[in-house]
Amino acid sequence: MTNYIETYRGNVSPWEVDSTEHFTVAYYYEKFEAATWRFLRQAGVDPRICKTTEALTHYKAELRNRDIYKIETACIQNGDRPRIAHKLFNAESGELCTTMQQDITGISLDIPEENWDGDLREDRAIPNNMVKWLPTSNDVTRPEETDWSGNLSMPGFIHRYSTANSFILAAFGVTSEYLTKSRIGLSTFEFQLTFEKAVTPGTLLDIESCIAHLGGSSIRLFHKMTDAETGEAISSLSQFGVHLDLDSRRPTRIPDSLRDRAKEFL
C-alpha cells in the first residue's frame, strides 16, 4: 500500500511526437500539470493559488506514437513549501518512463507522505559570463497558452525552450539538415527547471542559451528566460541530453567536427 494515487491516463497522439520520434517533452509537462491539478483538488486545496518554483524531471524510457501511459502522484514533503512527485508509467508494459519532483509555494499540505525512492537532484554549476551566450528566442505569450490560473502554462515554457535548443544546437552544426541526413536526434534525460515569476499574456520573453557541458555523446544546455522589457529573471532550464542514433535508439558519439565547434562556446 502506497500513498500514490492515479492522476492521469492518456496516449501519445501523432502530433505530440517530435523529430526524435518520441513523446515531446512539452507534452509531458502538459500532462504533469493536469495531474498536479487533480492531486491538489483531491487534497482539498485550491490549485489556482499555488505556484511551481522548481521541477526536476528524469526521462528513463521512451514513449512513442500510440503508446498508452498513466501518471501516479504523491506528496513527498508536507508543509508550507510542499513537494509532490509524479511517476509516469507505460500502461501496457508497466515500465517506469519518467519521474518529476515538483516544488510548490502558495499552499500548505498536511496529508500522508510517501518516501521518495527515485533520482535525487544533482547540483550542477550555473554557467557564468565566461561562456558564450546566444540569443535563442524572442517571443510574446499568447492568451491561449495560459493555465487555469491565467499564467503561462508549463508546456508554454517548454515549447519555447525547445525552440531555444534548435538555435543553440544549430550554432555548432547540429542543424536540421544534419539531424535529418544523419538520422540523429537529441534525447533528453534530465531537466532542472526553475520558475522565478509568473507570466501573463502579452509578456515579451527573451531566452539566451549556452553549452554548459560537453561529453562523449552527452551535452548539457543551459537556458535563461527574462522579461524583455524589465530584464527580470523569469525561468531557467538546465537540460542534459544525448546525441541519439534514431535507428538503433542508442547514444552515439558526437562527431569531432561538431565537437570542435562546440568547444568554442565553452
Number of strands: 11
Strand content: 35-45%
Q: What's the CATH H-level superfamily name of the largest domain?
A: Hotdog Thioesterase
Main structural class: alpha+beta
Oligomer: single chain
Query: How are helices and strands ordered from N to C?
Result: EHEEEEEHHEEEEEH
Stretches with pLDDT under 50, minimum 5 residues: none
CATH architecture descriptor text of the largest domain: Roll
**Mass-distribution shape:** globular
Radius of gyration: 18 Å
CATH class of the largest domain: Alpha Beta
How many angstroms separate the termini?
48 Å
What fraction, in percent, of the residue positions are helical?
A: 10-25%
What is the typical, i.e. mean, pLDDT? 95
Number of domains: 2
Number of helices: 4
Looking at the structure, the CATH topology of the largest domain is: Thiol Ester Dehydrase, Chain A
Biggest β-sheet strands, sense, barrel: 11 strands, antiparallel
Helix and strand topology:
Layout: E1 5-11, H1 25-42, E2 51-59, E3 68-77, E4 83-90, E5 96-105, E6 134-140, H2 154-171, H3 176-182, E7 184-195, E8 204-214, E9 218-227, E10 233-245, E11 250-251, H4 256-263
Antiparallel strand pairs: 1-3, 2-5, 2-7, 3-4, 4-5, 6-8, 7-10, 8-9, 9-10, 10-11
Describe the protein in words.
The protein has 266 residues and is an alpha+beta fold. It folds into two domains: 1-121, Hotdog Thioesterase (Thiol Ester Dehydrase, Chain A); 125-266, Thiol Ester Dehydrase, Chain A (Roll). Helices cover 19% and strands 37% of the residues. The chain is built from four helices and eleven strands, in the order βαβββββααβββββα. It has helices at 25-42, 154-171, 176-182, 256-263, and strands at 5-11, 51-59, 68-77, 83-90, 96-105, 134-140, 184-195, 204-214, 218-227, 233-245, 250-251. Strands 1, 2, 3, 4, 5, 6, 7, 8, 9, 10 and 11 form an eleven-stranded antiparallel beta sheet that branches. Strand 3 (68-77) and strand 4 (83-90) form a beta hairpin. Helix 1 runs antiparallel to helix 2 (154-171). The model has no long low-confidence stretch (mean pLDDT 95).
